[in-house]
Amino acid sequence: MSDQPAYTSYGPSDMDRFLLLFRHAFASTAAGTRHYVETVGPENFRVMRRNGSAVAGLGLLDMKQYFGGRVVRCRGISAVMVEPGERGRGTGGRMMAAMLEETRAAGFPVSTLYPATRPLYAKAGYGTAGDRITYRLPFGVLRGLRSDLGPELMAPVVRSTLEDMQAERARRTNGLLARCELLWQRALDSAAKPLDTWLIPGAGGPEGYLTLGPKSSDRTLHVEDWAALTPRAGRAILAFLAGWHSQAQAVTWAGGPEDVLIHLMPEVGAAIASWEQWMLRITDVAGALTARGWPMGVRAGLTLDVNDPLLAGNGGRYRLEVEDGAATVERLSGHGSSPASGAGSGQSAAGISLGVDALATLYTGHLTPRTMADLGLLEARPAALDTAATLFAGPKPWLSDMF
C-alpha cells in the first residue's frame, strides 16, 4: 500500500485542518479562513490527504483571461498550502500534477497563479507570464491638474456598468481577467472597508471609473479599482485625484508596464511600490492557441515543438496557422529534431523548440522571442524568431486582480 497522500475533494470534516493550514501559510484568522472557504465555495477546494487528514490544499477558480482581444478559459489557482512537515517530501508537486490533470480534463486550456515560490510551479510547467505593478505617486506631482470631465459619484454601484468597462479595457490588452464572482465581490465589498466609486461621464456613456478605499495610516490614498477607456477619462481620473492633495500625501493603484495613467501624467514622479509576476501553465496546447486572438491582417505559420514531461498528450509538434485574427492548429507526428524541422503548410517554414513553461511566456507576450532565445528558453532560427515576433506581438501582459 502506497504511503503517498491522495488528491481528493474537500469535505466538511477538513475545516479544522484548513484552519491550521491557512494559519501556517497565510497567518489567517479562523474567521478569515471560514469566510474565504465559503466565498470560493467548499466544492472548489482540493486536498492532499494522508491517513485521512488534509496535509495540503488549494482552491480552484473558474475564470477567463484575455489574450489578443479574446477570452480564454482559465483555471485560477489560489491558497496553495502545504503543512510544514510535508514540505520537501514532494507533496506539493504531486498536488499540482493532479490538479493539472483535472484542469485539462475539465476543458481549461490554461491555468494562472501568483507564485509564493517559483521552483514548485516551474517544475509543474508554469512559466512567468506577466506583471502586476503597484504604482505610488506623491500628490505634489498632480497639484494643479484640471479636467473638463467631472467624475460623478455612483450610488448605488451598478456592477454591470463596471463590468462592461472592464471587459472593453481587457480586450485592448493582454492578461486581464473577465472577473469571476469572487473577484467582483472583492472589488465591490464595501462591508470589508469603505469604498466609493466615481464614473467618468461621456457623450456615449461612461468612459471610465475609479473606486477609492480609505487612506492608510501613512496618509496614502488607495485606488482599489479603475478603468480609463479614453485619454480624457485618464486625465479626468488624474485631475480628480489631484483634488485630494490636502488630505493625503500619495496615491497608489495597480497597473501594468504600459500603464495609461503613468503615460498621461505631465510630469515624472511615480515610483513602483511593489512589483509581482504571475505565472501561466498551458494544459492544452492546441486549445490555448486556437482560443486566443491574433493580429488582424497577418497570415503566417509556425511549427512548435513543445516538451511537456508532466501532461501526457500535451507535448509534441504542432503546426500553427494564423490568418486575420484567428488560428488553426494541427497536431503533427513525433518531435522535431531541430528548431527548423517539421515545417508544415503555409507561408513560413519556421519552427521553434521549447518547453511548455517557455510556451506560456511566449503565449502571453511577456518576453519577445529573441529575448527568450537569448535566455536559452527556446531554440529557433532567425526566420522562426521573426515569425513568432509578428504572431505574438501585442501589449505587455498584466493583471490588476490578486487571487
TrEMBL record:
GO terms for biological process: aminoglycoside antibiotic catabolic process. Residues 5-148 form the N-acetyltransferase domain. One of its GO terms (molecular function) is aminoglycoside N-acetyltransferase activity. Gene3D superfamilies: 3.40.630.30, SCP2 sterol-binding domain (3.30.1050.10). SUPFAM superfamilies: Acyl-CoA N-acyltransferases (Nat), SCP-like. InterPro entries: Acetyltransf_17, Acetyltransferase_Eis, Acyl_CoA_acyltransferase, Eis_dom, GNAT_dom, SCP2_sterol-bd_dom_sf. Transmembrane segments: none annotated. This is N-acetyltransferase domain-containing protein.
